[in-house]
Amino acid sequence: VYQVFENVAKKYDVMNDSMTLGIHRVWKDILVHKMNPCPGTLLLDVAGGTGDIAFRFINYVRSVQQRQLQRKLKHHQNLSWQEIFESYQNDKFNNSLGDSQVVVCDINREMLKVGKQKAQHLGYSEGLSWVLGNAEELPFDDDKFDVYTIAFGIRNVTRIDLALQEAYRVLKPGGRFLCLEFSHVSNPLLSRLYDLYSFQVIPVLGEVIAGDWRSYQYLVESIRQFPPQEELKAMIEDAGFFKVDYENLNFGIVAIHSGFKL
Amino acid sequence: VRCQQYPPLCALQASAALRAPSDEHKKEPWASSSQQHFDSPPAGHQPEQKPQGPHPSYTGQGGQESEDYESEEQLQHRILTAALEFVPEHGWTAEAIAEGAKTLGLSVAAAGLFHSDGSELILHFVSECNTKLSELLRNEQKLVQLGEAEKKPIDEFLRDAVEARLRMLIPYIEKWPQALSVLLLPRNIPSSLTLLTSMIDDIWHYAGDQSTDFNWYTRRAVLTAIYNTTELVMMQDSSPGFEDTWRFLENRVADAMTMSNTATQVQSTGEAVVQGLMGAAVTVSN
């Protein structure tokens, strides 16, 4: 698995766009929207190598923070000069993120490197940390994070149950587990089209764009091997999460599973 | 035992187990039926099975044991109650719920348990208010039965009941218009309508209404109209102590009383007219 991603790291984003025809951006947007984070949230993004989820999270929190600030300013209409002066003093110490932070954790150094470069390039400076780590054995303390996300990463984990247990461990009570992953299409017609596309088109794209047919063959096969929605839901419940449910996107091509540590 | 194998049975057992503890908390049967009504809409787009409640304790980790002994519903109930404190500042939003969760020692992500538009928070609040009103009315009835208080005339009773219920909105009055609009969303209408009708039924029950005939509908419609219009007037009332609203309420209740008197009069007049016609017909035939 490590070598697959070493090869894939640099071309990861390009391949994502071409394979999914850009829809993966929408899927990731939906994931962050579902999370609905408020300022002050601590997010752990596992297997989040190139930082897609992390950047979206930061954008979302920034806009929420802006909205809150605007609402506060509206109230300023009726305040005395003294109160306005004091509120300006306070705002100076508020950063634009409102203490929210993302820790991006990945097992692969190359992916993290690409992610860091992207962050610099796009201008994301505060609130980001990059940590090397294994999802089955996270280098973090218990009860630390508000949200744990793993987008298109869990199918690459050898022991999914261990990863889920680790997720449970590092989440605070009340914390949320969110998993975005390829899943099973139940509609038979769509399933045939999807299989055709996966096995014929994707490895070819892999060869043409990234020069690596085998990695993408592996990718498609691992998607087929991955447990379907209900089974993954049961596994998440086994790890101790409550209120576990899933949302199918695009008829089951992708599914978002959500659970809470209560 | 995997609940997957016997989903219908397990779901029934689970829901029965869940309802049993939560029923103990509720005092009025009306309030409890409306509470369960709005707690059941499924979250997410797939119908979910609920093997909670009789959950073997998977969590031997950390200090989670305290949470195991209360059901999810109870925890959600506690979070929403805690969130009400933050509504004047944040409105009926997921932010208020997140703040509420924080005071309980949970992560802010627990707000994800609910819809992001704050529907559950508003419905919870309405249900709580209705429960409080029921209790108030029941205590008043007890006093009357014990002979310690006078039985109020019907118009005064209705006026006091509606006023008491509307006064519960005062701490949240600034953000209440927002709540009203959320309650009107198609998704929420079944729940909000059930809560409203059960509250009105409650008031009529304690007013001593035992009728099961046609009048039942008219009385509920009349009181619902009085309640809703007074609520709207209250939204834009800036008079001290909301005295304009209470005066409006008094007038509406008086109108309703006059209307019912007129209706009876019309009925008796109608009967008199019919009798007159019958008499005329008999005379003519003779």
Sum this structure up briefly.
The complex is a heterodimer of chains A (262) and B (286). Chain A is an alpha/beta fold and 262 residues long.
Descriptive notes:
The complex is a heterodimer of chains A (262) and B (286). Chain A is built from ten helices and seven strands. Chain A has 262 residues and is of the alpha/beta class. Chain A has a single domain, classed as Rossmann fold (3-Layer(aba) Sandwich). In chain A, strands 3-2-1-4-5-7-6 form a seven-stranded mixed beta sheet, sandwiched between helices. In chain A, helix 7 links the parallel strand 4 and strand 5. Chain A is globular, with a radius of gyration of 20 Å. The mean pLDDT of chain A is 85. Chain B is mainly α. Among the domains of chain B are: 45 residues, no CATH class; 154 residues, Tetracycline Repressor, domain 2 (Orthogonal Bundle). Chain B contains twelve helices and no strands. Chain B starts with 6 loop residues before the first helix and ends with a helix.
Which secondary-structure class do the elements of chain A indicate?
Answer: alpha/beta
Strand order of the largest sheet of chain A: 3-2-1-4-5-7-6
| Alpha-carbon distance between the two ends of chain B | 88 Å
Shape of chain A: globular
Shape type of chain B = elongated
CATH class of the domain at 119-272 in chain B: Mainly Alpha
CATH topology value of chain A:
Rossmann fold
Helix content of chain A: 40-55%
State Rg of chain B. 24 Å
Question: How would the blueprint of this fold be written?
Answer:
The complex is a heterodimer of chains A (262) and B (286).
Chain A: H1 2-8, H2 12-20, H3 23-35, E1 42-46, H4 52-75, H5 81-93, E2 101-106, H6 109-122, E3 128-132, E4 145-151, H7 160-170, E5 171-182, H8 188-210, H9 213-225, H10 229-238, E6 242-249, E7 254-260
Parallel strand pairs in A: 1-2, 1-4, 2-3, 4-5
Antiparallel strand pairs in A: 5-7, 6-7
Chain B: H1 7-25, H2 29-39, H3 65-68, H4 72-84, H5 87-90, H6 94-103, H7 119-145, H8 154-167, H9 176-183, H10 189-206, H11 215-235, H12 243-285
Helix pairs in contact in B: 2-7, 2-10, 4-6, 4-7, 7-10, 8-12, 10-11, 11-12
